[in-house]
Structures are given as C-alpha cells and as structure tokens.
Specification:
Blueprint lengths: L2 E4 L6 E4 L7 H14 L1 E4 L6 H8 L22 E5 L25 E8 L8 E5 H6 L3 H8 L2 E5 L6 H10 L7 E5 L1 E4 L2 E4 L6 E5 L5 H12 L5 E4 L6 E5 L3 E5 L6 E8 L1
Parallel strand pairs: 2-3
Antiparallel strand pairs: 1-2, 3-13, 4-15, 5-13, 5-15, 6-12, 6-14, 7-8, 7-11, 9-10
Bound molecules: fe (ii) ion.
C-alpha cells in the first residue's frame, strides 16, 4: 500500500512506499496523485538504473535527450545532471521553464533521482502549479490566451548554461525551435503552458504583446502557486511537465542527479 501526503496548498505530494514493490492499484493511485498534485516525490529509494528505468516506463515512452550525456551505453535514456562545488555560473535550469518546450513533442513527465546532494534545503527545485495560475486569471485574459500560441527556442533566456557547456567543450549544439498553444487541457483541466525560460514571441501578432507577456510571466510564478522541494540522497521526484513550471535554486556544492524524460 502507498501513502499519499499532500503538501500545503495541495501543490506536490510525498508518496511513502517502496518503488520496487508496487501493485497495479498502487500505480493507479500514484498516477492520479501525479495529475492532481503536479509533482510527487519519494524518499529513500536506492534504485539500480535498471529498476529506475523499469519504473519510468510505467508512465509512457522514454524520451531521448541529446543535449545531455547519457549515463552509459546500456542506459542512454538516463542522463546525468551534475554540478560540482568548483563550477561557476548558473546551474542547469535556473529559471522557471517547461522541459524541452522547444521541441515538437515536449515530454509529458520528467523524473530525477538524486545520487549526491548538498545539505538539505540549499539546492531545492521549485515548482509552480499552472492549473492554479490558470484558475486565477481574469476571464478576459483566459479568453485571449485560448486564441494564441507562443514560439520557443533552445537558445532562449535560460540557455546560458548551454552556452557554458559549449564554451567548455567547444562543440556547438543545434538550435531547436517550436510553437505551441499557450493553454493546455489535461484531463478536463486547463493549465497555462508557457515557458518563460525559452520564450521568444506570441503568435500571431497582436496589440499590447509586451504588456501581456509582462503580466503573464509575473502571474505564472506567484508565490501562492509555488512549492519548493528540498532534496535528500536517494529521493526520486516525477512531475507533470505540462502543468508545472520548475526551476533550480542557485547553490554552491556537489550534486548528482539521474534524469529521465517521458513522452
Ligand atoms: Fe528542467
């Protein structure tokens, strides 16, 4: 049996269970908690890479992420997110964003399994519920957002970490671009689906674009929609990449995460 412990404001939930021993009913409950709370996390999960992959496959087809190095030839779909004490510049993902929104088919879910973390509370991942952000929009803005799309680029505002990696390795990574509707309907609920970290422009053209952008970007990330998740070693988190924005907190220290994205 699994135990679901929702956070305050019902943004995110801790699930108490052993991920190596899940029944079909446990998985069903776990998936509905993921939809409901946007991000779910599990402490004390010392999983091997093959069990980690097997668990991830319960949520869909595993995605390839060519912008980060695969763990090994055997596990190319597990990518390594690492920061060393001596690293300078921003961490990977240090601005609110949706993973890979610059692709035609961005992943529905992202998973991280922590292998090495600094002191608890200094390297949190922050989440922002875009269901709640949508609900609290004025009606005229809801109607406007229903009609528009936005374009995104992998070279968007957040890409400074990519530039750092290019500088280190001297290898240029190809720019990826895509356009998506600004609202997303997931199981009857609307979420704002707009990634400030990769944003280029709204489409089509309309008056007061920059005013809407300014309003939307500050509304989306209001504190009342946020949950800041602390990490401990062997913690696994999975979030719905369509309904949650997320960002890394700036920190100094050693951290190693194994990441899987899922279509
Ligand atoms: Fe991310």
């Amino acid at each position: 049996m699994i135990k679901v412990i929702p956070n305050k404001k019902n943004i995110g939930a801790e699930i108490v269970c052993d991920l190596r021993k899940l029944s079909k009913q446990d998985l069903t409950r776990l998936k509905s908690a993921l939809y409901k709370y946007g991000v779910i996390f599990f402490k004390n999960q010392n999983l091997t890479s093959s069990i980690y992959l097997k668990f991830a496959k319960n949520f869909g087809k595993l995605a390839n992420y060519p912008r980060l190095k695969g763990l090994s030839k055997k596990y190319p779909q597990i990518t390594v997110v690492q920061r060393k004490k001596t690293d300078k510049g921003p961490s990977f993902g240090e601005q609110f964003h949706t993973d890979s929104i610059y692709t035609k088919k961005p992943p529905r879910f992202t998973m991280l399994l922590s292998k090495l973390v600094p002191k608890k509370g200094i390297a949190n991942t922050e989440f922002c519920s875009q269901y709640l952000a949508y609900k609290q929009l004025p009606l005229n803005i809801k109607n406007k957002l229903k009609k528009i799309k936005a374009s995104y680029s992998s070279e968007g505002p957040i890409s400074i970490t990519t530039k750092e990696r290019v500088k280190e390795k001297g290898k240029k990574i190809k720019e990826l671009k895509s356009t998506h509707k600004v609202l997303k309907k997931i199981n009857e609920n609307y979420a704002i689906y707009c990634s400030p970290g990769h944003f280029i422009d709204f489409k089509p053209n309309f008056k007061n674009k920059s005013k809407l952008k300014k309003f939307l970007f500050s509304h989306q990330i209001k504190k009342k929609f946020q949950y800041s998740m602390p990490w401990e070693k062997n913690q696994l988190a999975i979030w719905d990449n369509r309904s949650m924005l997320h960002q890394a907190t700036p920190f100094k220290g050693n951290r190693l995460m194994h990441r899987i994205t899922i279509h």
